[in-house]
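Bumping my old thread because nobody answered last time. Still need a sequence for this structure:
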């Protein structure tokens, strides 16, 4: 009977068509229009095109010459590396620890995943209170324990990058934690029991059994971390009210928004958006090729 269901293709088409139409209207068509807009002269949001640029690829040439765009790409690549190493690394460690306990594991899963549920805008305001120059929680703590004698401006050029990256990295640790925990749950306990009979230690089981069998799960986390770093916008924009006051603090997402909404340079913002998509696809495919999935 199940074989007969799969031989009939029209039910599949019936259910897939609405989803395909939805994606076409709200994803593929806007993306293609965004590509087209990047070659046109467009002023503010909602304005009609005043024709093609001269030359049409003018925005892409401008992008390569724009020093702030270079800074945004550099900062985003640094964030991407930190995301892969720290976010996924912390999530892996936490997942391995939680997997070892028998009681209370559900509590820790909920606690670690909780930051994902909170609005990024709310988290940005929360971290603003933590990093305030006068009366901020961090400055008060460091003063009370005697590590500093005067307040530190955590948003000055020598500290802003750490201030910017900390909440971004912290928020999504729980997201990768849940993915890795799910991967751990899919590993058969029979394998661990056989390894224990053969005399495998705790670290030996992690190195030779857990990590190899988590390879595909970690590859998924890697791709998500790369694409997620390219789209970071809301937390940094909230933490630096009125835009990014420091020229060295731009990310690709925040700089695209700034050019589109603040500078009313819609066509240049569209070109930056296209670059973000291309950069994400290229780096993701490269990472997927290097850390290709394995069959066990």
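Sorry it took so long. Here it is:
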């Amino acid at each position: 009977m199940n074989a007969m269901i799969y031989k009939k293709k029209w039910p599949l088409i019936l259910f897939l068509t609405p989803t395909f139409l939805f994606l076409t209207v709200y994803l593929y068509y806007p993306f293609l229009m965004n590509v087209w807009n990047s070659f046109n002269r467009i002023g503010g949001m909602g304005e009609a095109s005043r024709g093609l640029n001269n030359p049409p690829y003018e925005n892409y040439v401008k992008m390569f010459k724009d020093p702030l765009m270079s800074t945004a790409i550099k900062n985003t690549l640094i964030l991407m590396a930190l995301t892969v190493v720290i976010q996924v690394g912390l999530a892996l460690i936490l997942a391995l620890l939680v997997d070892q306990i028998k009681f209370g594991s559900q509590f820790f899963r909920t606690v670690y995943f909780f930051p994902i549920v909170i609005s990024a805008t709310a988290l940005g305001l929360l971290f603003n209170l933590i990093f305030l120059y006068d009366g901020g929680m961090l400055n008060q703590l460091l003063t009370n324990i005697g590590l500093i004698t005067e307040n530190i401006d955590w948003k000055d050029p020598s500290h802003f990058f750490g201030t910017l990256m900390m909440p971004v990295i912290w928020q999504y640790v729980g997201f990768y934690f849940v993915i890795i925990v799910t991967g751990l749950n899919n590993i058969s306990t029979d394998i661990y029991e056989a390894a224990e009979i053969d005399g495998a230690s705790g670290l030996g089981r992690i190195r030779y059994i857990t990590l190899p069998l988590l390879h595909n799960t970690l590859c998924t986390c890697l791709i998500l971390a790369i694409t997620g770093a390219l789209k970071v916008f809301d937390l940094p924009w909230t933490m630096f009210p009125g835009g990014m006051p420091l020229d060295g603090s731009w990310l690709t997402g925040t700089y695209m928004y700034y050019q589109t909404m603040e500078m009313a340079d819609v066509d240049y913002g569209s070109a930056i958006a296209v670059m973000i998509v291309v950069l994400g696809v290229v780096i993701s495919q490269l990472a997927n090729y290097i850390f290709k999935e394995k069959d066990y």
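The CA atoms of residues 113 and 174 lie 4 Å apart. Let me know if any region looks off to you.
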